[in-house]
Design a protein that fits this description.
7-stranded antiparallel sheet; about 35% strand; alpha+beta; SH3 type barrels; globular; about 15% helix
Length: about 110
């Protein structure tokens, strides 16, 4: 399966190991670069999304508006990056714009680095 940076996928994030880890089947954003995405590498680095919205939560969250494939406005949980096996990805839901991905990457760098 080939995925691309900036795509939104439905993913099964269960089981979760601790109560503060994001679980359930939910949308995720692929943040891994396409060089790895196009290889035989079996995992992909993603950011989970939630419909429990918190306003003005940057740099920890980024709001994505409802669109085809995404039933409601959602927050990307920037501080919850994780690597998941590509077999956990169930269905492609959509793609973020280049501007949205640029903002998410800036926030991610702010949180992680």
């Amino acid at each position: 399966m080939t995925v691309c940076k900036g795509e939104i996928w439905l993913a099964n994030l269960n089981p979760q190991k601790r109560s503060n880890e994001i679980g359930k089947t939910r949308p995720i954003v692929v943040i891994q670069n396409d060089l790895l995405n196009e290889s035989d590498y079996s995992t992909v680095i993603v950011l989970p999304m939630t419909t429990i919205l918190i306003n003005d939560a940057a740099p920890l969250r980024f709001r994505v508006k409802k669109r085809t494939g995404l039933e409601s406005d959602s927050d990307v949980l920037v501080a919850h990056a994780r690597a998941v096996d590509k077999e956990r990805l169930l269905q492609k839901l959509g793609v973020l714009t280049a501007a949205e991905m640029e903002q998410i990457c800036l926030l991610f760098n702010e949180v992680v680095f």
